[in-house]
Structures are given as structure tokens and as C-alpha cells.
Amino acid sequence: MLTRPPFAASTQHPTLQRSTSLGLTVDTHDTHNTQAHGANRALQRLSNVRSASEHHLPDNITQARNTSIVELPTDFDVDLEEVRPAKRTRLDSDLDIVASPQAVVQDALHETIPGVALGLPMRPTESHKRHGSRRYAGEQAARKADGIIPPAMATKLVHPRAVADFVPWRGNHPEDILNEQTVKTGYTEGPSPNQNESNTARLTIWPTLSQKNNVALHTLSLLYTQVLEKRQALGRCTAPSSFKPPPRVTVTDTKREAWLRDLANPSVPLRRQSRTIPHGIRGKLLLDQCVTKAIPLQRAVWLAKCVGANELRAFKRKGVSGTAAAQGESKWVRDWTISVEQFMSDTINASDQQGWRAKIEYSVKLVTTIYTENLIEKDHFLDWTVASFSTASLDQVPSWMILTQLYWQDLVSFSRRGRLLAKALLTHLDTVSRRGHAVYHLLKSHLEKQLALMLTNVQECLILPDVWQNRRHLLKAIAQDKQAFGVLDRRNLRLLEPTTRPLQAFCHPYEYGYTMS
């Protein structure tokens, strides 16, 4: 409510006064004649001002500078309904420009009425803020709900202080203060004043641990052992495996080709392919299809495992048990190994075909993976590798040397197989050395490296008395350790000596005039 204090009776000379709070310049003389007119003007201005409750309406007064609203004196009784509201509030910029103070004095419209400026609109309460924020968030979420940008209410984050055991760095921690001591020695949290760490438990524990019967140590060892056993037991999978190999179904050739193409496509999930397996893919045909379709190695090995599991399960379905079943399984494994060997041999022999290099690379990787997964009979495969390497031509020797290098540790771990490999290496080296063509220089260097490695690490594989006389010069030329070669030479000559002695040396000494002294 707008109020005005009563006028004080005074006989001051009428002077020009300015109100800095109201921003209007009026003359206060002749109050009896002009007060009514001033009240009417105040009512007109007041009727155009928005109330504090109507804060959503535009405020035209705040667009001017140093302006305010005059207040209605309490001495007048004016009917507000009869007063015509003004179109807008009269501001400083609307005042008439006068040339002299006398003109201002004569203007009865400029009257300064003491009072207090109208306060600011009422601030919204907490409930208003809450309802307003909800309405704004809902409108914003509705505008942004396009499926690409999440709404604001869905991406609201929790305050960092609400997260347990999380103290964000704010830059004002004690360790952030850089002084001379912190720079030299670093920052460490000092012990609490009530904490005493100068004592030690050695005096209490050592007598127990140093007893003659070592009861404490045995007890401690037993506790640690029990803890490890408990940990190992809890880390095991106790539930039995429910995996079963996918069944085989008889399908047409078209569906079989489509199934193999899907298996070669990495985008097709393997779960879909594992429902059924087409019947008729086994042995060498399986490996040929893997090479032709370029099936990934992991999927090719998975197919070989599934086919093998179904083949071995077929023996149990026949009702055969005991020795007969074991023999049947061994026979199938041997046949599968022979199929792998035949597949590898055919791939190496087809070196004149187009795209042979890609095929041999894939075949070597596939066979090596099958060998590593123990899906074939290793001894039979290694013996076949050595035998094939021994009888290979010089054009095929590089391909077979790749296999010998891959299975080197398994080949030389058995002396009999290692000696056969050494004989084959010496034979091929002798053949290459005799030809002396520049094409075979690289092959000759690889053969010499393998023989030098064998001479350094596995000399027992070079105990070859039957071929030592003819191949001795080859090893002597490449031997870097002459002492090791000398030991190997004496061992071979010692084994070779009984075969070169005359037969009479092994007869009874009395038959040739020898007497015992």
C-alpha cells in the first residue's frame, strides 16, 4: 500500500527542489491549488504500474534511468475508478524543457511528494522454484526427446560428495602447498599424537618361533596350507559340463556348400552354425574344404573337433566296449592322422598351381594348429615328416624345412628320430654342395644353420657311424667349436672301429699264438 506522511507546517520560501529518489523535478509552492491536480497525476501514473504480484508482466518503468513512482498523499480522497489511466508513466525524458526556474515554478505539474521508492517484485518462493524448474525441465526434455540427445533429467549426475570413499581434488589440500620441505622430502602424513609405533612385537613372537620343536612354525605352515587349499577349492568349477557336440544331419550338396560358406563368414555367429553339422565332411575332404573356402583357423579347428567327437561317439553307440572300443578309437585317430599327412603332402606337391603360396601358408598354419591341439597322433606325424623330408627333392626341401623348424624340439628330443633328421640334413647339404649353383646358396645356408644348431645343442643326434666317413667333412667345415667337433669325431670313430677291425681280433687269443702271462 502506498502511503505518504502528512505535511509539516512551515513558512519556508518556495524554492526549487529535486528528488533524487523519484527522479522528478517539481515545485512545492502553492500547495493548496495544485495538490488535487498532483494527486490526479499520481493516480494516473500509479494505475499504469504493474503490481508486485504481476511480476510476469513487462515493466516499462525500468527502461528509463533514475525514475520512480510518486506516492499518493493520504490527505486526498479520490475515486480511482473515475480517473482515466494514463497511457504510460511520465518519465524524466518526458518533462518539458524549460528555459528558466521561473517557468518551472509556474508549472503546477512538477510537484515533489516525499516518499519511498517502490520496492522490487517479490522473489519466488521455494515452492515456486520447484514447480518452475519441473515445468522447465519437462519442456526442455520434451524439446530434446529426439532419440539422439538424452533429456536433461536422464543425465543428472550425483554430487561427488555423495559417492562413498571418493574425495575429489580441489587444489586446496595440504599436499598442494608447495614449500621447501615438501619439495625436498615430499608430503607425508604425520602420525597421530596418540599413536606410539616405537614398540615391536619381536620380543613377543620370537620366543615362540624359535622353539626347538618348531610348533609355531608348523602351525603357521599348516594354516597357510589350509588357506591355499581352500582358495584352490573355491576356484574350481564344480558344476559338470553340459556341452554336447552338435549332431550331424544329412543334407543336400547345395545346403552343405551354403553351410560351409556361412562358416567361413565371420559375421555369421558360430552359435547358429553349431546347431547341426552336415554329414559327409570328414578326413581329407574336411581339410580341402577349409582351404578352398578359406575358413578361419579357429572355426576350422572347431569343425575338426566336432567331427572327431561325433566319430568317436559313434563307436559307443554300437555297443562296443573294452578293448574293442579302444582299438576302434585308435584306428580312427590313425586314419585321421594319415588324412592330415596326405593333405599336407598333396599341398606341397602342387607347387606349380596358381595361388599355391596362399594355400601352403594356410595349410601349414592349419596343420600346426591341429598338431598343437593334440588332435592327431604326434609320433606317427613326426616320423612321417622326417621320412618325407629325407626323400624330398631339392625343389621341395624348402617347404619341408618349414615343418622341421616348426617341430624342431619334438624331432630332436627323441634320439632315433633326431639321427634320421641329421642324416637327411647331411644328405641334402652334400647334394647342394656338389651342384654348386647360385640358386641353392640360400638353401645351403639354412641347412648349415640347422646342422650347426644340432652340433651345439644335441650332439647325440650326430652319432652316425654308418655315414660318418662320407659326411665328416661337411660338419668339419661348418663347426665353429673345434673342440666339440673333435669330441664328436672321436665318438663316431670309436663306434666305427669294430666294423673296420679284422675278424681275427675278435677271436680267442690262444688260436693265434697269444699266451697269457
Automatic annotation (TrEMBL):
Main location: nucleus
Biased composition (Polar residues): 9-20
GO MF, one annotated term: transcription coregulator activity
UniProt keyword Repeat present: no
Keywords: Nucleus, Transcription, Transcription regulation
Keyword Magnesium recorded: no
Chain intervals for the UniProt region annotation (Disordered): 1-20, 119-142
One GO cellular component term: mediator complex
InterPro entries noted in UniProt: Mediator_Med12
Sequence ranges assigned to domain Mediator complex subunit Med12 in this UniProt record: 242-305
UniProt record, GO biological process: regulation of transcription by RNA polymerase II
Localisation: Nucleus
Protein family per UniProt: Belongs to the Mediator complex subunit 12 family.
Official protein name in the record: Mediator of RNA polymerase II transcription subunit 12
